[in-house]
Amino acid sequence: MSSQNSPTSTFRSKIKSSLPFTLVVSIIGFIAFLIRIRPSDSVFLSNGFVRFGGNDPWYHMRTLNFLLENYPSRMFFNPMTNYPNGSYIHFGPLFDQMMAITSLFLGMGNPSQELVNTLGAYFPAVLGALTVIPVYYIGKYLGGHKTGILAAILIAFAPGQFLHRSIIGFTDHHVSETLFSTFFMMFFMLALISAKEKGLRFEHVITKNLDALKEPLIYSIMAGVMYSAYQLSWPGASLFLLITLVYAVIQYVLDNFRGESSDYLGIVGTVTFLVSSILILPFVHPEMGFSMYYYSWFHVITALGALVIFAVLGFIGREFKKRNLKAYYFPLVIFGAFIFGLIAAKIMVPSLYSLVINAPHSIFGIQTGGPSTIAEVYSIFYPNGKIAGFSFSRVYEYFTAPAFFASIAGMILLTANIVRKPKPEELLTLVWGLLMFMAIYGQNRFAYYYSVNIAVMGAYLGGRLLELVKWDRLEENFGTNVKSLKDFPGFFKSVKIEQIFAVLAIFAVLVLPEYSSAMGQTIGTGGPNGPWIEACLWLQSNTPDPGMDYNSVYEAPEDGELFDYPETAYGVMSWWDYGHWIETIGYRMPNANPFQAGIGGRRGSIEDENQPGASPFFTAQSEEEATEVLEAVDPDPDKAGARYIVSDIEMASLFGEGVNPKFGAMTSWTLDSDGYTQAYWTGSGYQYFPSDRYFNSMESRLHIFDGNGLKQYRLVHETWAYQTQETWHKQVYNYMYGGNISEDNTGYVKIFEYVKGANITGTVSPDETVKISTTIQTGQGRTFGYSQSTTSDSDGRYEFTVPYSTEGPISGETRFDTAPTGPYVVSYGDTTKEVRVTEEAVLNGEEVKI
């Protein structure tokens, strides 16, 4: 054998021919990384604070630091949130483990907090840039190098959710979901292509024909590894199992109608899901039963079920071919087997049956009620709910209009190609794209997945355009004639004008709009603003230690029992959006969190009991009603569910310029949203204003009125103010309801404390009107009035319960910076009396006699 034809020579030739494309993909990946780290200044603040984006990234940093503190033990049950119940952590372990192992390696076993924070901030940008690799290969095996390169460019520049979830500081598992699910599809596709080309048969397994088995098995094993990595990034990975099974059923039917063997498909599917079921097994928590939300037997059973389905369909296909049965019976047999499987599941494992039946709606259906207010789960086509109507606004924001419609055109072209000459990789890509399109119709959270489909299908369309201008000949000419830099001038002479125009058209229509949109969306990363950071740090430093070891491993309580908290433990009531910030920055235990725990309210209908939690507390129509909710949160009759209440102007806003109004979301979770606004005719149309019901709500009483007149809730701290809709709400109250409150912006975040209150008692004439008042000054130097009034009883006795101490904080309790500027003044008739109240009296509910 000559050296020119030796295996070594062939291998070197392949490496050499692939080097230019490897270099191009590497450059694209590096550019993708640079785009994602543009807003680093909004993450690494000048004061040294690292501000991670959103909500869940903070919890990943919480679990990462916990993991490093207790390595290799990870957090599964956490009593430091959803007080007084705690929360099981459904996050997959892989994302945190990757960061932990990298931190330990770079920190030589003892990484500093600065290193951990820096790595955590950059990690999503790295994974986002790596996603370029599988997208390139998927594009390449659909339409050659040109399609692969274009797909890589489109995913690198893709705006919207994929960019947001892979940007610096957004340290969440979403980017790893996209990366590993795309790698799974890439390896599964390569396994199908290889197995089909080699004519893989079950006989090859029996005879151990390694020449036929080796390459497909390697790809299938890698597909199983990547599916497991995807599963261990997100418990809902069965979405891609569903995509694979739908593809497989269609492929089996097509192969049967065409009289072709489907053994290749059965072997690839069986090996893939055998590997994944083995790898997921060590992470199963048997006590979770068949939950899809946590790692449970569901994840093993579904992987094994997929394995069985591939094997059974393969067996049925072989039997049809061997017995020469009519092809049109095949879909009927599959349908019958599916119905039989559902019946068997309903009889033997009802909980699994329920999950399977409800899965399509949970993924593809449009949410209603409280869940419809979660930013991740509303439909991309109905961003404001079905009542507001169909809209493409989010589509354009997440993908750009040219890329979205180009991908639709690409799918149409791909469908036409499949009808003419079906290939497994093309059918898999089409089914993947169609089901993900259905998924974004149901929940916009899947938009970051669909960005990959947009890139692939847009590149497929662009690749077909390049084929029309004979791009493959140009590519071949480059590979043959360009050996060094001096060969480039000759190559450029062979480039045709239509090829130049085709490239420019693709750049102008697909690439440039994505790039421009991405640049506009990388100016910041979100996350807690300055007031929220300050408020959480204030909680950490100025409230009593709840008596919990922040990074200790706590065992979950026995089934049906509550976690045994120390007497010093307490909750912090706020809206669920802010729970992770309160826990991770403030080191305090929120009642509600972004796991949608502790919200309370109703889920079925208005007839259901309004469960205690954040939504019924903040929408309560009186202090007494709110206190009843707060007391009901904790099953211990001697303890309230929360000691502190944290509010911000977003929670208090019905409408919003400059804020994200959350009051409407709080009412939605109670399924009782009517009556908080009132329509008024303004001459040009109806305009909606806050109603009595809004101003009577506990949230309004706290944030808009500063808790004035409340007996057991006192403002203990406020942050600085921003220009918000607060002044508008106050103007409406003064103008329409005869109020007389100061029309200014106050603390963006306010912290209140729930106390027993001191009982001030005295005696006057019977049926005498008595008033108590004082002036409160906050830590920001702002003052406001606090007052109550009552009427003495028939014996002339009166009583006030007041929440503020006039004597300042005491050791071991709240170090408040908001307090009366002097004593309370009790007035009746022409008489006024001053009274001072100690902090002990407020905390213990002691009587203060006048």
UniProtKB/TrEMBL annotation:
Pathway(s) per entry: Protein modification; protein glycosylation
InterPro entries registered for this protein in UniProt: AglB-like_core, AglB_P1, Oligo_trans_STT3, OlisacTrfase_arch, STT3_N
EC number: 2.4.99.21
Membrane topology (UniProt): Multi-pass membrane protein
Pfam families: AglB_core-like, AglB_L1, STT3
Occurrences of domain Oligosaccharyl transferase STT3 N-terminal (ranges): 42-315
Alphabetical keyword list: Glycosyltransferase, Magnesium, Manganese, Membrane, Metal-binding, Transferase, Transmembrane, Transmembrane helix
Cofactor(s) the record lists: Mg(2+); Mn(2+)
Protein name: dolichyl-phosphooligosaccharide-protein glycotransferase
